[in-house]
Amino acid sequence: MVFPSRQKCRKHLPVGTGQFTVGCVDVMSDHTVKGTFLRLYYPTKTTDIMKCQMQWPLWLPTKQYGKGYVYFRRKNTKIFGALFNWIGGDVYVPVLWEAPILSNGSQFPVIVFSHGLGGNRTTYSTLCCDLASHGFVVASVEHRDGSASMTLCFRETANTSIIRNTHDRLHRDCSFTEEWLRYARQESEVDFNVRNKQIHTRSQECIQALNLLEAINRGDDVHNLMGLSMNLSQFKGQLDMKRVAAAGHSFGGGSAITSIAEDDRFRLAVAFDAWMMPIEKEVYAQVKKPVIFVNSEAFHWEQNVEDITSLVEQTSRHAATAVITIKGTCHQTHSDFQFLVGKRVGLYAGLRSTLAPHLAMDLSNKAALGFLWKHLDIPNKPDYEDILQGRHKFVMTGVKVARMLVT
């Protein structure tokens, strides 16, 4: 559950377990749906995070995101939107907003993270923050393909002259208004043609995010339409663009796999509870880089297991693969929802399972970290082989059929 803390403290998600304090900032490269929108998590100067609560960002950036989750779940947004915002609206992420990236003479490897169906850039704050606390720069993409619960873009205001500042940039406050785009419902949520088109759009958005990070790392003049005060030029030369991974949960896990098939700059994929249906089988043969599947015990069905097995069989001819399952976990084990409510409510709502959320998240993230460090050639790090080889008492190798899929 969200930490209440012994001292008077803001409600917050778990703090990263790594050696680094984490900073974060939102970046939007264009005001339309064609632009990249992401939240960036990165190492910053070591500090006592509990003494910097006023610098923590809210988990729900605005109330619209709470309403988006409710709309995705097909609930009344007026009634349940207010309830959701009451539950999650005062929860904070224990990272330092707009803190400068750590400059210690080292470059930080990069992860581009793709959210699941009905998620957004903050849904996996605990996971992304934890990876960043271990020395990664994590770009959590907010997809604009209609699969996010809610996303933000801007619309040019009619009858308003476009004002430019001294750097010849559009001044958003004077020329644009917010436009909120909620989840695009489908006649069938498992329509292959719809989801296949989306997964390739999502893959291109991950690639576009990587392009943006490369531009930032080069020191290009990248304008952030979020209108924040942080100067992105400080990231110049700080990212290790030779060590880049794609990761994601559910639909995002499939998107990560598709991304490494479509862009050679991604060296591996970390797929948390990957939803495989949207990926056409022809893509499997193109996946020739390391892939790890980190699964929950309660999510998978027969066809999904068959698809994972098929991809692993083909990929393992060319690269390392790993498939593990964390016992006593459910699909939301990888997201923040399990930390928002207590045990009884979490179990009833399917937001958590029998394994304690902090332990479940820790095992899942250690599996990812061990695989990332090994296959990105990052030395002097733990290998977590007990987890990756299924020797931990709460971990098994492979993935099992847990339920029947109702279409």
What do these coordinates show?
Helix content is 29%, strand content 18%. It contains ten helices and twelve strands. It has a ten-stranded mixed beta sheet, with helices on both faces. The chain has a two-stranded antiparallel sheet with strand order 6-7. The longest helix is centred in the middle third of the chain and has 27 residues, at 192-218. Residues 160-173 have low confidence and may be disordered.
Alpha carbon gap, first and last residue: 32 Å
- Principal-axes geometry comes out as globular
Q: Could you give the order of the helices and strands?
A: EEHHEEHEEHEHEHEEHEHHHE
Helix content: 25-40%
Count of DSSP H/I helices: 10
What labels would you give this structure?
globular; 407 residues; single chain; two-stranded antiparallel ribbon; 10-stranded mixed β-sheet; alpha/beta; 10 helices
Summarize the structure in short.
Helix content is 29%, strand content 18%. It is α/β, with parallel strands linked by helices.
Task: Walk me through the topology.
Elements lengths: L20 E8 L8 E8 L18 H10 L4 H12 L7 E2 L10 E7 L10 H9 L3 E5 L8 E7 L15 H4 E7 L9 H27 L20 E11 L1 H12 L5 E5 L18 E6 L5 H14 L5 E6 L16 H7 L7 H19 L9 H4 L6 E3 L10
Parallel strand pairs: 1-3, 4-5, 4-8, 8-9, 9-10, 10-11
Antiparallel strand pairs: 1-2, 2-5, 6-7, 11-12
